[in-house]
Amino acid sequence: MITVFYNLLSILIVFTALFSYLNYRYIKLPSTIGIMLISLLCSIGLVLTGAIFPEFKQKVVSTVVAVDFGHLLMNAMLSFLLFAGAVHVDIQSLKKQMISVLTFATLGVLLSTVIIGFCTYLIFPLLGFNIPLIYCLLFGALISPTDPIAVLGIISEAKIPGDLKIKIAGESLFNDGVGVVIFLSILEVAHKGIGNLSVLQITSLFAREAVGGIVWGMLIGYLGFLFLRSIDNYKVEVLITLAIVMGGYSLAEVMHVSGPLAMVVAGIITGNKAKEFAMSGTTRDYLGKFWELIDEILNAILFLLMGFEMLVVKINKTLIWMGLIAIVIVLLARIVSVFIPVLFLSFHKTYEKYTITMLTWGGLRGGISVAMALSIPTGMYQEEFLTITYLVVIFSILVQGLTLGKVTKKLYK
Q1: Does residue 38 sit in helix, strand or coil?
Q2: Measured on CA atoms in the order 262, 265, 269, 272, is the torsion positive or negative?
Q3: What's 88's DSSP letter?
Q4: Please, are residues 266 and 228 in contact by the beta-carbon 8 Å criterion?
Q5: How far apart are CA 183 and CA 109, in angstroms?
């Protein structure tokens, strides 16, 4: 078992390094987009090669299937990626935008979930798919959160005004955690049946996950700060931050609170309070570079896996049409879920020009949505939702991601 895992990891690292090199040396796209694009082209090449050498394709497909993408991302990679992203968030800038960020991350995600759920419930039967409303809402929950890994990787290279960049980055970090909580709550309702759960039980489940995750993140973040403040050794201090991530996320699962939200909160505390009051300049330098490197490597592996997942996604003409319709629905839901909070908040706060446009087009979907789709049990339309999710994510990363810089230049020239 250990040998198989090591071999799979070795293959992933080799391909990640190769594709990263090709992108940096020749294609010169943002690493998130470049690696996924090369992976997709490689997958298409493997599909075409498989028509001539079916045994070869079968071996590659069995290797991809052996990687439990959903479990790998949700239970291993996500904690590192969210913590790494949150460590680099400036709390002073975030405080100024906190009301906006939290509103987009809560009200915005809930609105988007409901809009997508009801729209797909009404439209999909026209294509011959009569999917119950609870499962359509499940799809709405998994596709609504913007992906912090994709968003942070791309907006860092786009010349977006500072305050707006903080809104987009902060929202993507928090709405991921909220999105996972909503998804798990709806999944629980789908499992037990809506008639077997009261509104109080559903609200309690949501509150325990969300509030519990935030409180747990504050606790482990502050505990980590106390340990970091008591010593001055960058090696030990980096190890302490690793313990916060790995131990904190594992315990969050045991306590049934939101691990993603806990990692975001702990990362912000570590990246601000601990850096300012508990670390020497040397430690700050090493810690920053360590988590930046972790972020880059895991990002590359994540989008490589997403490209190769195309080999196992079953696509037919009807599902392609459903995916194209879903792309439009998701974008429209994003516009509404951004417009309504901005409309309410603009009574006491001035927003930058083109805020709604940038938040809509910069709201990229990524690996987290794919992972949640993979975690849906087989009897809950997993195949259909996985294919649709994958098409939405490809459009989001390749089309929105590739054009975000150009849109920014055009709007803010």
Answers
A1: helix
A2: positive
A3: T
A4: no
A5: 11
Q: Which two tokens stand for residue 150?
A: 């994709």
Over range 175-200, report the average pLDDT: 80
**Which is more confidently placed, 69 or 387?**
387
Spatial contact of 354 and 337, defined as CB atoms under 8 Å apart:
no
CB contact set of 95 (below 8 Å; sequence gap of 6+): none
What distances in angstroms separate CA 2 from CA 5, 8, 9, 72, 308, one per listed residue? 5, 10, 10, 15, 22
CA dist., res. 234 & res. 285, Å (int): 9
Spatial contact of 86 and 264, defined as CB atoms under 8 Å apart? yes
Residue 15 CB contacts under 8 Å (≥ 6 apart), including other chains? 39, 304
Tokens 């309702």, located at residue: 189
Q: Cβ(93)–Cβ(162) under 8 Å?
A: yes
Supply angle C-alpha 156, 116, 150, rounded to 5: 15
- Say which residue the tokens 């446009």 belong to: 357
Token output for 373: 């789709």
pLDDT > 90? residue 243:
yes
Helix residue spans in 76-132 (DSSP H): 78-87, 91-96, 98-103, 109-123
C-alpha pair distances (Å), 226 with each of 249, 267, 269, 275, 370: 19, 14, 11, 12, 37
Instruction: Determine contact, residues 364/146, Cβ cutoff 8 Å.
Output: yes
Quickly state the pLDDT bin for 241 (edges 50, 70, 90): very high
Q: Report the distance separating Cα 186 and Cα 5, nearest Å.
A: 33
Cα angle 377-363-378, degrees, rounded to a multiple of 5: 5
Average pLDDT over residues 269-293: 89
> Two tokens at 141?
């929950």
Residue 377, SS3 per DSSP: coil
Q: Which of 305, 341, 49, 366 is nearest to 179 (CA)?
A: 366
Of 399, 396, 325, 336, nearest to 365 (Cα)? 396
Sole residue written with tokens 């799809």: 139
Q: Which residues 6+ apart lie within 8 Å of 146 measured at CB? A: 168, 171, 172, 175, 176, 362, 363, 364, 365
* Beta-carbon-side half-sphere exposure of residue 313 (alpha carbons within 13 Å): 28
